[in-house]
Amino acid sequence: MAEVKSRVGRPSGDTQNRDKLILAARSLFIERDYAQVTIREIAGLAGTDPGLIRYYFGSKESLFSTMIRETALPVVAQLYKAKQEVRQDSPAALMSTYYSVMSKHPHFPRLMFRIAGLDQSLPENAEVTKAFYEVVNFENIAIFQRLKEKGLLREDVDAHCAQLSFFAMMVFPFLVPENLLQRVGIEITPTFLQRLAEQNARLLQRGLMEEKDESDE
């Protein structure tokens, strides 16, 4: 991420103001479409001057991109690790990291899901979709194809089907309507997500992975 260089006359409360703008932007962009959110609204919710958005980020587009990248940074780092060293526990480790991050921002996946459905051919969606695909790099996400190539998946497992099942396990808990969760007695809390991550890890291991020691390779 390109940071704005330090300048003479940097305003007081530098880090706090920047963080407040990130938090306000995330809150507003999750609630409404990108085009409906204004710089003045973001600054108002953050309790700062609108000029600070240009000072720290340069534009609303850059603030949006920064918010997406910084929120997803731990997940992206885990994806990179999984790409560098493919192991049977790579999907489980990624899911655990994802749940941990999203437990702090449970509505963020809904924003990402909404962005994924935007028409990329429209000029007004260019910056939004660019930020999305910088985070959601499909080359990095294709974990199960690499597991298949290394012989770590069971012979009867289709890598593409496994990848889609994995997406569903990661994203669906955050997309379920609140009233449906309440009807089945589920509350999406950090404790629940930790239990869910552990159970899903067992499902992945027992249902998809070859029963052999990776050290044999």
From TrEMBL:
Residue span(s) of domain HTH tetR-type: 15-75
DNA-binding region: 38-57
Keyword annotations from UniProtKB, A to Z: DNA-binding
Entries under PANTHER family matching the protein: HTH-TYPE TRANSCRIPTIONAL REGULATOR RUTR, REGULATORY PROTEIN TETR
GO molecular function, one term: transcription cis-regulatory region binding
Pfam families: TetR_N (PF00440)
Keyword DNA-binding included in the entry's annotation: yes
Protein name: TetR family transcriptional regulator
Matches recorded under InterPro entries: Homeodomain-like_sf (IPR009057), HTH-type_TetR-like_transc_reg (IPR050109), HTH_TetR (IPR001647), Tet_transcr_reg_TetR-rel_C_sf (IPR036271)
